[in-house]
Amino acid sequence: MKFLKFPNDFLFGSATAAYQIEGGNVNSDWWAWEREYAGKPNGPREMSGFACDSYNRYKEDFKFAQELNHNVHRMSIEWGRIEPQEGKFNEEEIEHYRNVLKSIKSHGMKTFVTLWHFTLPQWLREQKGWGNFKTPYYFARYATLIAERLGEDIDFFITFNEPHVYLALRHVIKIWIPYKHSTFLDFFEGWFGILKGHKEAVKAIKKVNHTFKVGICENIMCIEPKRAVWWNYILCELRKLFQHKIFLHFALKNCDFIGINYYFHDVVGIRNFFLKKDSLENKRGEVSDWGWEIYPEGIYKVVKEIAKFKKPIYITENGIADATDTKRESFIVRHLYWLHKAIDEGIDVRGYIYWTLLDNFEWAEGYIRKFGLIEVDRSHNLDRKIRPSAYTYAKICKEGGITRDLQEKYNLS
Ligand code: BGC
Q1: Cβ neighbours of residue 367 under 8 Å, at least 6 residues apart?
Q2: Which of 42, 47, 159, 300 is most exposed by smallest CB count within 10 Å?
Q3: Probe residue for ligand 1, chosen from 318, 362, 365, 373 as the CB with the greatest number of ligand atoms within 8 Å
């Protein structure tokens, strides 16, 4: 058994998203929805409210990340803060994000910046969001502004986070607001709107500076047949086509990298081909607090498959809801073991970014899902406390690989 070393310039870190941690995002559509649907059947489980108050406490958070030896941090910018009214940009908020980015840098980390992580400015919600043919151009205008004003501190731009998750949860599975008002037509309008928005934003960012690195994040599941029969292979291929392949075929053309968010093992057969609310809580084997199967080998299979797009790969999210922190260490070590194997076999993976730095607002689930390397005490001043598993990950980040003792502990060979 030898030390499993990652490439020298490999990036290790963690991710966050503005709406989930900042608090007080009063100009965003999700904020308005929370209030509109509060108390109604299917309404939000919890309001985002102050979230982790990271809008004010970001320096403290980055200090933790530095202590944990992270050399990269993925964050997002809340469009509704930057452009609270159509065409009116808020200088104070631009300045705020400049300070946030400078702070990440001063804590020794590179920056991944997501421009859109599920939320829109409120004024765009009133104009049909991604279903409006003008939205891609509004998005490109916002992307230009960020590139011009903040680009010098952004190492990697991410246009969109997981377009398919957003569209499916809103318009197909319908557990994200606006629930039943949406139809398949909204799904397709949104699909084309986001693809167009992505392309326009990449163009806009490159126009500001052609050396800027731009990519997109997709949630890529490890899709495998339930039983090894030919029709299940066809169903798997269909799933892959609709969940990422067609979109990525068009989206990746002018991108510098792909960000993979890996969480799921999706075992497909005829009976579960159509996505349902609990499709992914398949409770096979070892599962997270949320009932998601833990399948580390899947990260290896996924990167091997996505390598066919011939773009450098970053794992921009991978994480577990584990309130008691009993499974997180093993989760991280085993996923990194399989990722290392893929790299060893020649796959161009350049970073691993754990989801997430802090326990935060988990969309429709509210605050019950604890994905954080750092626990946030919601009953006491949002106090932060580093979880034990975060120290093991810190050791991996520091050493740049998986030491023999960890491999022995988890029987990896
Ligand atoms: C999203 C995050 C979310 C995480 C855990 C990802 O799909 O990008 O916003 O918190 O999954 O559910």
Answers
A1: 46, 359, 360, 361, 378
A2: 42
A3: 362
Query: Does the pLDDT value for residue 205 go beyond 60?
Result: yes
Per the rule left: phi > 0, alpha: psi between -120 and 50, beta: everything else, 304 is alpha
Q: Is the pTM for the entire model greater than 0.85? A: yes
Going 265 to 271 to 275 to 278, the CA torsion angle's sign is: negative
Distance, in Å, from the CA atom of 18 to the CA atom of 42, rounded to the nearest integer, reads 24
What is the C-alpha separation between 248 and 306, in angstroms, rounded? Answer: 10
At 231-284, the pLDDT tens digits run: 999 999 999 999 999 999 999 999 999 999 999 999 998 888 876 656 655 667
Which residues are CB-contacts of 110 (< 8 A; sequence separation ≥ 6)? 11, 13, 71, 72, 73, 155, 156
280-303 in b/e burial notation, b at 16+ Cβ within 10 A?
Answer: bebeeeebbebebbbbbebbbbbb
* Maximum pairwise Cα distance, the chain: 59
Number of other CB atoms surrounding residue 210 within 10 Å: 7
Tell me, using a 6 A CB cutoff, whether residue 355 lines ligand 1.
Answer: yes
Amino acid at 54: S
Res. 43: pLDDT tops 90:
no
Q: How far is the CA of 371 from the centre of ligand 1 (A)?
A: 9
Residue-wise pLDDT for 57-100, tens only, equals 999 999 999 999 999 999 999 999 999 999 999 999 999 999 99
How far, in Å, from the CA of 356 to the mean position of ligand 1? 9
- Check if 316 has its Cβ closer than 6 Å to any atom of ligand 1: no
